[in-house]
Design a protein that fits this description.
Layout (H helix, E strand, L loop, with lengths): L3 H15 L9 E3 L8 E3 L1 H9 L3 H11 L5 E7 L3 E6 L1 H13 L13 E5 L14 H16 L3 E5 L7 H13 L22 H17 L1 H15 L3 H24 L10 H4 L3 H10 L4 E3 L2 E4 L13 E4 L7 H15 L4 E7 L3 H13 L8 E7 L2 E2 L16 H19 L7 H18 L7 E2 L2 H4 L7 H18 L13 H10 L2 H11 L3 H20 L8 H25 L8
Parallel strand pairs: 5-6, 5-10, 10-11, 12-13
Antiparallel strand pairs: 1-2, 2-4, 3-4, 7-8, 8-9
Helix pairs in contact: 1-3, 2-3, 4-18, 6-7, 6-8, 7-8, 8-9, 12-13, 14-15, 17-20, 17-21, 18-20, 18-21, 19-20, 20-21
Length: 583
C-alpha cells in the first residue's frame, strides 16, 4: 500500500505535468503551518526560475489540474505555495484500505532477504550489567522492525566465551580445588554432569581471578597457559568450559526473557575459532596481511580518510587472536551459515573505529562481497542524573537484574497504591508497565545519543512515557469492550475535527516505521505513537463516543479507535513490549 505522502506527491507531480511543467517540482510535504493546511507544495517557487514566470502563476495553473474530490482545500497563495487539505472521502478510503490490508498496508520490502542483527554481546561467566541494556533493547526492536518489513531477521547474541576470562576462571579454580578430575591430564573417565561450582560461586571466581592477575605474574601466566590449552582442545578444560557455558547461558536466558529479548542464534567467539586459521591464511595468500613489529596486520587506510585509520591487527606478536580476528572469522561463519544481505552490529559507540577497521578488512579480503551491507550502530551511554554513567547507590556498576527489579518494585508500588487492577492481576500488569517504562524510556532517545535514566519520569502515567502509551491502549480496549463486536466495522468520514486529526495521524504510520527501518531509529516510532496517543485522547475527551445517539456515527467512532488500537499495539510490539488488559 502506497504511503499517503507518496500518493499525494504523485498526484501533485501529475498536476505539474498536466499544467506544462516538469513533474519533479511536485514534491509535497507535511505542512509546517497546520493552522493553514495539512500538506503543502513549494515546487512553484523553484519552477519559476526555470520557466521565467511568477511562482503564483505556476501554482494557480497546477492547482486547477488537481482532482477537487481529493481535497477539501486547494489554495494557491503568494508567493507561490500550494496549500492542501484532504477531503473526508479521501481519508476514509485510505484508512479503510489500511484497516483491511495485511501488515496495516506496509509493504514487505525485505521479503526474500536476510539480515543478521548482532546484539547483546555479553561475556560468559560475568553477570549482565546495565551496560548490556541498550544493546539488548535497541537490537531487539530493530530485529522486530526488520521482520515487520518481511526480512528473515536473525538475532545473534555473539557471546564472549573463548578469551582470557576462561583461562582466569580455570586457573583460579585449579588453585582452589586442585584435586578435581578436570586438572588431571591422565584422566580418561566421564566428567561429572554437575559443575563443581554454583552460579553465584562462578560470578565470584572471575573478579577474584581478574584482580589476582594484576598482582601475581605467575598466576597471570597460568591463566594465559590455561586459555591456550583450552583453545587447543584440552579435554578437562573443555569440560569445565561447558559447565561455565551451561550455567551462564541459562542465567542470561532468564534475564533476557524478563526483558522480552530473544536470540535466534546463541553463538559465540568459540564457534568462530575454527574458521580463523584458513581465514588468516587467505589474507596471507592475497598479500593483504603484512608483518608489523612481530604482529600480522591488514592495512585498511584509504585515500581521502579525514582521520587516521590504523591497520587492523589480525594476529598479535605472541601468535594469539584478538577481537578483530574473531569478528572477521564470525563474518566468514555468518556468510556460510546464513548468506545474509546485511549484518547490523549494535555496540557502544566507542567501538566505531574497531568496526571501521574490521569492515574494511572484510571487504578487502573478500569475506563480505559487494552487495552485502555492513552497518555498525554505536549507541550512547545511560547516565544518572549527575550526567555521568549510571551507577548503583554504592558507586558500582549495577547488575541488569537489579535495575529491572528496582523498576518493577517502583511500578508495583504505584499499581497497588492506585488499585488500578484486581489483586490477581497485579503481578502481570506490573511486569508489563515496568517493561514499557524501561524500554520506552530508552528507545524514545536517539540511539547514538547519551540519555539520563530517570525512573520516576519513565514510569509516569502522563507525558511522553511508555505507561502513557499503555494507558491510551487500555482506554481504547475498555471502550471497545463495552461496545461489543467491532472488528469488521468500516472506517467512515470523520464526524468532527478531532476525528480528522486522529485520521491524519493514523496515515503517518507507514512513514514512521519506514523511517525507523532506514535510519535504524526506533525513536521515530516512539515519537509517532506519542503523537497518535495524544490525538486519541483528544478525540476521547471531546467526543461522546459511546453516548452518540446516531448508531452509524457511533460505529464510525468505534472503527476509528479500533484502528488506532491496532496501530498502537503493532507499534509497541515493534518496540518490544505489550499492553495489559486493564490499567
Amino acid at each position: 500500500m502506497e504511503k499517503i505522502l507518496d500518493m499525494i506527491t504523485a498526484k501533485m507531480q501529475r498536476a505539474f505535468q498536466d499544467a506544462g511543467y516538469d513533474a519533479s517540482f511536485g514534491r509535497v510535504t507535511v505542512s509546517n503551518r497546520p493552522d493553514l493546511c495539512e500538506y503543502q507544495c513549494n515546487g512553484a517557487l523553484a519552477a519559476a526560475k526555470q520557466y521565467h514566470c511568477a511562482p503564483i502563476q505556476i501554482a494557480r495553473a497546477v492547482a486547477e489540474k488537481l482532482d477537487a474530490g481529493d481535497y477539501s482545500l486547494v489554495d494557491a497563495v503568494m508567493p507561490g505555495f500550494i496549500n492542501l487539505k484532504l477531503s473526508d472521502r479521501f481519508l476514509q478510503n485510505y484508512l479503510e484500505e489500511m484497516r483491511t490490508a495485511e501488515n496495516l498496508g506496509v509493504e514487505k520490502i525485505g521479503a526474500g532477504k536476510t539480515i543478521v542483527v548482532d546484539y547483546g554481546g555479553p561475556n560468559v561467566a560475568k553477570p549482565l550489567h546495565i551496560g548490556h541494556l541498550r544493546s539488548a533493547i535497541i537490537g531487539e526492536s530493530l530485529k522486530r522492525i526488520y521482520r515487520f518489513f518481511g526480512y528473515n531477521a536473525i538475532g545473534d547474541i555473539h557471546m564472549g566465551d573463548w578469551g582470557l576470562q576462561m583461562g582466569l576462571i580455570i586457573a583460579e579454580l585449579h588453585e582452589r580445588q586442585p584435586g578435581l578430575c578436570y586438572f588431571d591430564p591422565d584422566y580418561t573417565g566421564q566428567y561429572p554432569e554437575e559443575p563443581p561450582f554454583t552460579l553465584s560461586e562462578l560470578e565470584e571466581i572471575y573478579p577474584a581471578a581478574s584482580a589476582k592477575k594484576k598482582e601475581d605474574e605467575n598466576f597471570a601466566a597460568q591463566a594465559h597457559t590455561a586459555t591456550f590449552e583450552l583453545q587447543q582442545g584440552r579435554r578437562g578444560y573443555h569440560a569445565l568450559w561447558k559447565h561455565i557455558m551451561n550455567l551462564s547461558v541459562a542465567d542470561m536466558t532468564r534475564i533476557y526473557d524478563t526483558l522480552d529479548v530473544h536470540f535466534e542464534s546463541w553463538l559465540g567467539e568459540s564457534d568462530a575459532d575454527p574458521y580463523i586459521p584458513a581465514m588468516v591464511q587467505s589474507f596471507k595468500d592475497q598479500g593483504l596481511a603484512v608483518e608489523s613489529e612481530g604482529a600480522l596486520v591488514i592495512p585498511v587506510a584509504e585515500e581521502g580518510d579525514k582521520k587516521e585509520v590504523p591497520p587492523c591487527i589480525l594476529v598479535k606478536s605472541d601468535g594469539s587472536s584478538i577481537y578483530a580476528t574473531t569478528d572477521l572469522a564470525t563474518m566468514v561463519q555468518r556468510m556460510q551459515d546464513f548468506h545474509p544481505d546485511k549484518i547490523l552490529y549494535l555496540t557502544d559507540k566507542r567501538q566505531a573505529l574497531h568496526f571501521e577497521q574490521v569492515f574494511r578488512a572484510a571487504r578487502k579480503g573478500g569475506i563480505i562481497p559487494e552487495g552485502v551491507e555492513l552497518e555498525h550502530l554505536g549507541f550512547g551511554t545511560m547516565n544518572g542524573r549527575d550526567g555521568k554513567p549510571f551507577k548503583t547507590r554504592e558507586g558500582g556498576v549495577m547488575r541488569l537484574e537489579r535495575l529491572i527489579g528496582e523498576m518493577t518494585e517502583f511500578v508495583h508500588a504505584k499499581v497497588v497504591e492506585n488499585q488500578i487492577v484486581e489483586e490477581s492481576e497485579v503481578e502481570d500488569t506490573t511486569a508489563k508497565i515496568a517493561l514499557a517504562a524501561l524500554k520506552y524510556g530508552d528507545l524514545s532517545n536517539q540511539p547514538t545519543k547519551d540519555y539520563v535514566f530517570d525512573m520516576e519520569r519513565f514510569a509516569a502515567f502522563e507525558g511522553n512515557t511508555g505507561p502513557y502509551i499503555l494507558y491510551t491502549i487500555v482506554r481504547i480496549k475498555s471502550i471497545l469492550s463495552r461496545y461489543g463486536a467491532w472488528e469488521n466495522l468500516p472506517i467512515r468520514s470523520p464526524a468532527n475535527v478531532y476525528a480528522k486529526d486522529l485520521m491524519l495521524a493514523l496515515t503517518k504510520f507507514g512513514t514512521a516505521v519506514e523511517g525507523a527501518l532506514k535510519g535504524s531509529a526506533p525513536n521515530l516510532i516512539c515519537a509517532y505513537i506519542y503523537e497518535l496517543a495524544g490525538c486519541v485522547n483528544k478525540f476521547y475527551h471531546e467526543t461522546p463516543i459511546l453516548k452518540e445517539a446516531d448508531e452509524t456515527v457511533k460505529a464510525g467512532h468505534i472503527a476509528l479507535i479500533g484502528l488506532a488500537k491496532n496501530v498502537l499495539e503493532t507499534s509497541i510490539s515493534l518496540l518490544g513490549f505489550s499492553a495489559p488488559e486493564k490499567m
